[in-house]
């Protein structure tokens, strides 16, 4: 368990550092993103979808507010185009994270985990718990990128990864985009309720998962 936590911590620190830098510079603030979408909408609706997809794809490299983007996608594009754009963007980010880590992650794996035993432990642990981690990864702004990279690093079968990834992002994007489309400046309640509901569901599910996992570990160690 320590091996996989070490890997996930390093990846999380990397993504967190990009989030802090962008937060301090204000380059990808919510206000900036909203102004870009408004400008794109004044030119062409297709450009709005392209901006949403691009920003969600870039979430793999620089942490961006995914839920806010999905809500704004629905607000500017409507429920269908908004959810489709959000799904495509998150799908591309997951695919890139998986394949980049699959082909180039061995160096990081070998550098952080010096022994074959540690590497084997990390792989077996993620094989056992990886599906749940991917499904519940939306509980944290950084966990989705980490889980996609971990799936590639540990060579999770692609069919399994894409199944769990789609199960994670499709309902999430549809709910967020629909709530965004139902919201207005005068009545932002649908977006607020969706944000609270999604965050609450994933955080509660993640807490239950962590609690159940820790109990199993304690039982096995006794």
TrEMBL record:
Name of the protein: TVP38/TMEM64 family membrane protein
A Pfam family this chain is assigned to: VTT_dom
VTT domain sequence ranges: 64-181
GO CC list: plasma membrane
Family: Belongs to the TVP38/TMEM64 family.
The keyword Endoplasmic reticulum belongs to this UniProt entry's keyword annotation: no
Membrane topology: Multi-pass membrane protein
Transmembrane segments: 7-30, 36-53, 60-78, 84-104, 160-179, 191-209
InterPro entries given in the database record: TMEM64, VTT_dom
Assigned keywords, A-Z: Cell membrane, Membrane, Transmembrane, Transmembrane helix
Biological source species: Pseudoalteromonas luteoviolacea DSM 6061
Main location: membrane
UniProt superkingdom: Bacteria
Record has Cell membrane as a keyword: yes
Places the protein is found: Cell membrane
């Amino acid at each position: 368990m320590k091996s996989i936590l070490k890997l996930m911590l390093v990846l999380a620190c990397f993504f967190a550092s990009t989030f802090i830098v962008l937060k301090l510079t204000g380059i990808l603030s919510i206000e900036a993103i909203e102004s870009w979408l408004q400008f794109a909408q004044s030119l062409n609706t297709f450009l709005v979808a392209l901006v949403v997809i691009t920003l969600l794809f870039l979430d793999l490299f620089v942490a961006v507010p995914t839920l806010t983007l999905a809500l704004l996608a629905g607000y500017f594009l409507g429920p269908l185009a908004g959810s489709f754009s959000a799904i495509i963007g998150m799908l591309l980010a997951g695919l890139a994270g998986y394949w980049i880590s699959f082909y180039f992650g061995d160096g990081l794996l070998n550098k952080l985990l010096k022994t074959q035993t540690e590497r084997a432990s990390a792989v077996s642990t993620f094989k056992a718990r990886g599906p749940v981690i991917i499904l519940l990864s939306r509980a944290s702004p950084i966990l989705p990128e980490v889980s996609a990279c971990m799936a590639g690093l540990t060579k999770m079968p692609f069919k399994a990864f894409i199944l769990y990834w789609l199960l994670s992002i499709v309902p999430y994007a549809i709910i967020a985009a629909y709530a965004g489309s139902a919201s207005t400046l005068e009545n932002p309640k649908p977006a607020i309720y969706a944000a609270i509901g999604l965050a609450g569901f994933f955080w509660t599910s993640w807490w239950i998962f962590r609690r159940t996992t820790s109990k199993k570990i304690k039982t096995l160690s006794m």
